[in-house]
Amino acid sequence: MSKVLNHKYGVAAKVLSTYAVLFFYLPSYSQSLADNKLPNIEERYRSLETFARAVYFLETMYVDPDKVTPEITVSNALGGIVSNLDPHTVLMPKKAFEQLTIDTRGKFGGVGIIVSQERGRLIIIAPIEDTPAMKAGVKSGDEIIAINDKPLSSMSGKDAVEMMRGPPGSELKLTIKRKNVEKPIDFVMKREIIKVRSVRGQALSADIRYIRITSFQENTGDELIKILQKYRKSMKGLVLDLRDNPGGLLDQSIKVVDAFIESGLVVSTVGRDPDRIEREFAHKKGTFGDFPMVVLVNEGSASASEIVAGALQDHQRALILGTKSFGKGSVQTLVSLPDGSGLKLTVARYFTPNDRSIQAKGIDPDIVVHRQLSRSKKKAKRESDLSGHIESNDLSTLSSESGILNSIKNWPSVMQKDHQLVTAYTYVKGWSIFK
Question: Where in the chain is the domain with CATH 3.90.226.10?
């Protein structure tokens, strides 16, 4: 289970996450008000009197009473309030709130995309691995402009997300606007029960491992440690892939960092009160700190994955390689409301060990490498391209045992074409050679 932190309102808050957010879950909204300092009662209700009078006139005089029921009025009022705050603070209808709590358990119905609402646009942060969206070719940065031929301009962000969900086997059509592509692209996919695999690993060579974390779920830290323990004796280097990782459980991101550093600060969270700071630290026991690491990030790396990359970068434990990350540096709280709906609101910002804010900035990699090489118009010739060239014969097995290119040839074809991964591997391999 996730680690319990002391919330600033005096409530033990369970950390959950989805859609590239970190948030604390508060089962009862009334509890969170226990220690909150309210404004002067007279001033508070003087301002609410205006609201109450307006609602009364709307409910008793508006020509269409079905549009101004108490439930609709309150919902619209709250929706108006949160719409003027940050994009991660939203009012969620009962169905959407229930679905969100299901999503945090790593299973939900849909096509498998993580989205963010930005200035009225619905942007895909990342497709989830091994889902209909990834198989269809949906990419990070794509903008959804229509769902089942219905323009997004005619619906709210939360309605759009809800519309993308549905029973397994049903079809969903997304119309995507992609950068540097002139015409919109249509994707027709069948919904599935999305089961997100958190951690997977494989060998890049006999002594260098590759581990990918797709999201931070309840057992992510334990799954990572199992892989590290299995190959600890033979491992001389690691490539940790956090690309297109939309985030997840805060305590699991802390556990991942803790696996690689012996001591020191991992992350700080600061809420409304700047003098009240929550800090999480690493521990020496069980640390895997005796091999070089490269961490891969890109524009789809967000939230918890940025905590990991930022902490390892600040502690100089790993080389960060790729492109600038998403820049999601805030913490959200889920509050359940009496009618079954929920309120997701931003309550804090988080900072790296060196007190860097990631919010709207992202993690700058130590080495900027794009995913694919730009193609040269003319291929350079080599000796092996010349007709009738003399065949080579090594005098020893050293070349075949240590050659980087020979190792890469054994990778799956999709990995061989991954320029960032190839570059990360060459850095780790090169470090082990120099050492």
Answer: 199-334+348-368
d(CA 243, CA 321): 10
DSSP string across 313-342: HHTT-SEEEES------EEEEEEE-TTS-E
Q: Which CATH superfamily is domain 107-195 in?
A: PDZ domain (2.30.42.10)
| SS3 category, 404 | helix
Of the residues 314, 330, 344, 418, only one is catalytic, namely 314
Residue 328 is among the residues annotated as catalytic for this protein: yes
Pairwise CA distance, residues 196 & 129, whole Å: 7
pLDDT tens figures, 108-118: 678 988 887 77
Annotated catalytic residue, options 2, 32, 116, 303: 303
Residue showing tokens 């007709």: 387
φ, ψ of residue 103 to 5 degrees: the values are -60, -35
Choice among 14, 328, 344, 429 that is catalytic:
328
H or E stretch covering 187? strand 185-190
Phi-psi region of 272 (alpha: psi -120 to 50; beta: other; left: phi over 0): alpha
Give CA–CA dist 259/240, Å, rounded. Answer: 12
Domain 199-334+348-368 adopts which CATH fold?
2-enoyl-CoA Hydratase; Chain A, domain 1 (3.90.226)
What's the mean pLDDT in 357-383?
78
Which is it for the CA torsion 15, 17, 22, 28, positive or negative? negative
Q: Does 303 participate in catalysis according to the annotation?
A: yes
| Model confidence pLDDT, tens digit, residues 407-416 | 888 888 778 8
SS3 of 158, please? Answer: helix
272: pLDDT strictly greater than 50: yes
- Between residues 387 and 250, which one has the greater pLDDT? 250
Largest CA distance in the chain: 96
Buried b (16+ CB within 10 A) or exposed e, 79-104: eeebeeeeebbbbbbeebbebbeebb
**pLDDT tens, position by position, 81-125:** 999 999 889 998 887 787 666 655 556 678 988 887 777 789 887
pLDDT band, very low/low/confident/very high, at 289 (cuts 50, 70, 90): very high
State the span(s) of the chain assigned CATH 2.30.42.10: 107-195
Of all residues in the chain, what percent carry a pLDDT higher than 70? 81
